[in-house]
Amino acid sequence: MKENIQKLRTYSYKDIDIIPQLKQFSAQEILAMKSVAQVIPFRTNNYVVEQLIDWDNIPDDPIFRLTFPQPEMLSRENFERIAKLLEENTSQAVMKQAVDKIRSTLNPHPDGQKNYNVPKFHSGTVRGVQHKYPETVLVFPSAGQTCHAYCTFCFRWPQFINLGDLKFATRESGDFQNYIQEHKEITDVLLTGGDPMTMKAWQLALYLEPLLGPDFEHIQNIRIGTKSLSYWPYRYVTDPDADEILALFEKIVSAGKHLAIMAHFNHWKELETPVVQEAIRRIRSTGACIRTQSPLVNHINNLEKVWVKMWKKQVKLGCIPYYMFVERQTGAKNYFEIPIFRAWEIFQGAIQKVSGLSRTVRGPVMSALPGKIIIDGIAEINNEKVFVLSFLQARNPDWCKRPFFAKFDPESTWLTTLKPAFGKEKFFFDSALEEMKINKQLQLSQAIK
Ligand SMILES: *Cc1c(COP(=O)(O)O)cnc(C)c1O
Ligand code: SF4
């Protein structure tokens, strides 16, 4: 194993030609990759290319599909349009127009993220904060809105910016602290991105250390959502500030908080290298725990056995499986999506093959506009085949754990195409949700004024 690779080398769109492992591709195939990478942001790095991808298994290797754009991720028509423009060496302006047009059809802000979850503080909105469920606030530090590599199924990239300067981060962290201080119902702060672990230790400290003070006794749990264990485990082992990161984790734990690293793993292959195992060991030695989550994605982890092996491996390494998500309705969704009934079959098939220590995982879960909805099962009631659903988290907490039913539909891939069962017109929460939408929109337009 190449334990000596420690320095991050990032490859972006313009480096597709120079990645040595891509020499096996024809000029035509490279052009195809470059065309898709115009629309779906591309970034990978030396660890992913040299240690995760099996180059003897292309294009089926799951990690290859996870970070390298494939022609099928765009519709044929869109793909051909971009490939043609690229071949003609068209002007940047024309290319940008074509790309923007395609991107706008790919729904970059799913499920009301932009409009309905942004909290207000005094007169303005709080930048970089989402507060959907009472006890947990999401924080998006500006300097952490990028990742060590990009997943091809991700469409968070409209927020992939880089505003790393000290003044901005300080002001921003001040804003969210003020908000949290006034909201005593909040017990959990979840730092997310992009990937907050792309930040330097001092930047991370700017957001987290204040929460250890006396004004934040209501904050019990600090979570950091990250893909760094998969894409750059050296973050915790050999990066120049790796030890500083671990010291910060220790400090949080000694202050009496529960620190949870919410690690995004899509495949057991990401758990095999010596360096990821060392990173997990080092994080756990600080007293932090690691919980794992992943979407179920076609072409990458759409097999029961992949989940069985992944969960077992995670538990063996001391990680706690947490969520299996249904892939969101964004990005190259036709390529990645899986019908809800298949998602349930895969979950049900996998969960029965692992011990109770892996059964902490909940799924398949749709994180949708009204809340986090779990597909509990498929049943036949009064001769009607139905999905049994319930909320794990809801905009109105009282909706949680109340079973509800949708008509079975073998094609449906998301809540928005499900119909209530038993001839009903609406789900039990629909009217209340409509009202919330109207009210929130009113508030939002007032804030803009
Ligand atoms: C998933 C999620 C959370 C956290 O929910 P838990 O059930 O506490 O893990 C918080 N806010 C938003 C917007 C979420 O989607
Ligand atoms: S790690 Fe998360 S935010 Fe980053 S590209 Fe992948 S899915 Fe998107």
From TrEMBL:
Entry-linked InterPro entries: Aldolase_TIM, Lys_aminomutase/Glu_NH3_mut, rSAM
What does the record give as cofactor? pyridoxal 5'-phosphate
GO MF terms here are: 4 iron, 4 sulfur cluster binding; catalytic activity; metal ion binding
Which keywords, in A-to-Z order, does the entry hold?
Answer: 4Fe-4S, Iron, Iron-sulfur, Metal-binding, S-adenosyl-L-methionine
* Protein name as catalogued: Lysine 2,3-aminomutase
